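User: My collaborator sent over this chain with a note saying "see what the structure looks like." That's all I know about it. Can you take a look?
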Amino acid sequence: MEDQAMNPGDLRSAALRLSVGDRLRLIWDLVRSLLGWDGAIEPTAPTEPSLEQAIARIEQLIDQALAAHPDWDPGLKRPVLNRVASSLSQSPDRWRAILATPEETLLKRVSLWLVMETFSQIAAEESDTEKAELVAIIEGK
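Assistant: Without extra context I'll predict from the sequence alone. Here is the result:
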């Protein structure tokens, strides 16, 4: 059998014989194929701010700070993130403030938390004599 192409008139009359639902499905399939879209609809309304978003933001900034300072121990991430998550979970006002804080300011704060965690780990490993010497140095004695 020979392949015969439909002329525009035949195509139009075939389309008119389709039900409205079939026409809409045909148009929908055509649009999806042209756009390469799988049909998943993404939410257009912004999601409500959440504790998880605040923690994810802090985690991203911790990674950024650690990448900027290769001499810092990557093991600092987990204790700092745990401490921050615990603090933020105590009050919605805290994590809302984190989400509202400009990134540059928050990055400085995260860097400070990492430095404080470093000192905390160092202090845990020092003897009482070494700790007393450190306190004396800090106090200027």
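A starting point for your reply to your collaborator: Residues 51-139 form one domain.
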